[in-house]
Specification:
Layout lengths: L1 E6 L2 E4 L4 E9 L4 E9 L6 E6 L5 E3 L7 E6 L4 E6 L8 E9 L2 E4 L3 E6 L1
Parallel strand pairs: 2-11
Antiparallel strand pairs: 1-3, 3-8, 4-5, 4-9, 5-6, 7-8, 9-10, 9-11
């Protein structure tokens, strides 16, 4: 089993920044893709950003240019640097990793951006 521990969420004013982290622990041999999702009330869950083990990245158009995803393979940790935050970014953010073709989800961390 793999456990994902997220941190870094909180309340921030529009235009501010937050850095989310997701650390994996447990029965890990090799983590493949690591992905951030988010879901706001009344909205569908959406992919925010993803990063492969080799470092290739993908961003949703809504966050491109403002968010940066990265990972530290030695620490089994990924990060999401969020700059120029907007109220529309308010959501629960979840990390997802794949280990041996199994999917694991984090507990979620709340990000609230005030006007």
């Amino acid at each position: 089993q793999v456990q994902l521990v997220e941190s870094g969420g909180g309340l921030v004013q529009a235009g501010g920044s937050l850095r989310l982290s997701c650390a994996a622990s447990g029965s890990i041999f090799s983590i493949n893709a690591m992905t951030w999702y988010r879901q706001a009330p009344g909205k569908e869950r959406e992919l925010v950003a993803s990063i492969t083990r080799g470092g290739s990245t993908y961003y949703a158009d809504s966050v491109k240019g403002r968010f940066t995803i990265s990972r530290d393979n030695a620490k089994d940790t990924m990060y999401l640097q969020m700059n120029s935050l907007k109220p529309e970014d308010t959501a629960d953010y979840y990390c997802r990793v794949t280990v041996a073709l199994r999917i694991y989800w984090g507990q979620g961390t709340q990000v609230t951006v005030s006007s």
